[in-house]
Amino acid sequence: MIDNCAFGYDRNDINMDASIPTPSQQTILGAMVLQIIRDLDELTLSELKVKIGEASREIRLSEDQGVRAIYTLLANKLITIDRSRGSYQPVRSF
Q1: pTM to 2 decimal places
Q2: CATH 1.10.10.10 given to domain 2-93
Q3: 90 — phi, psi (to 5°)?
Q4: What is the distance in angstroms between the CA of the first residue and the CA of the last residue of the chain?
């Protein structure tokens, strides 16, 4: 489901008359964050911000929207950031 949501939609292909709702930009970015975390074994917060920034720009969204998706997932307890390790802050999903 994450893969389909993260890369299954192009903004030009969205049919507004479809009976199945299309995911919002934040939902797509959230799925992309989860996909990045899943695909990379160990990832720090700063590395994740760079990766989601690049991914956001690829789909013509701002880096800020990508970073906002990270903190939305954190607020909803879908990811954790281990801040006890100083500047090395690994990010994990549940």
Answers
A1: 0.78
A2: yes
A3: -65, 145
A4: 15
Per the rule left: phi > 0, alpha: psi between -120 and 50, beta: everything else, 25 is alpha
Instruction: Give tens-digit pLDDT for 10-24.
Output: 555 556 566 777 788
Cβ proximity of 52 and 36 under 8 Å: yes
Arithmetic mean of pLDDT over the chain: 85
| Distance, CA of 38 to CA of 22 (rounded, Å) | 23
**What are the sequence ranges of the domains in the chain?**
2-93
Measured distance CA(84)–CA(76) in Å, rounded:
20
Binned at pLDDT 50, 70 and 90, residue 53 comes out as: very high
